[in-house]
Amino acid sequence: MSADGITNSFVPFTSDEIAKLEAIREAMIDPSPRRIGRLDQWGLADEYEIHAETAEYTEHRIILTDGTELDASLSVPKGLAPGRTCPAVVMPAPLSPWGRLSYLGVLSRWVRGGYAVLAYSQRGLAESTGEIHCAGPQDVADATEVLDWLLRRDGIDADRIGFFGASYGAGTSLLAAAQDQRIKAVVGTSAWTDLLASLYENNTRHLKAFEELVKLFGEDRCSEEFRGIIQKIRADTIDDEVREFARVRSPRTHLDRYNESATPVLLTTTWHETIFSVPAVIDFHERLTGPKGLLVQVGDHGNAELPGLVGLPAKPTDMAYRWMDHHLGGTAGDGEPPRSDVRSEHMHDLFSDHRHAAWADYALPGKRLHLADAPAGQGDGQLADEPQAGWTRSVKATGTGTDIVVAPQLIRTGLAERLGRPHIYATADIDRSLAAFFATAPLEEASRVRGELELRVTVTAQQANATIVAYLLDTDPADGRARIITHAPYTLTTEQTGRPVTVTFPLQPADYIVAKGHRLQLVIDTHDPFFSPETTVPAFTIDLTSPAGTESYLDIPLHPVD
Question: Is residue 146 within 8 Å of residue 120, measured between CB atoms?
Answer without folding.
Answer: yes
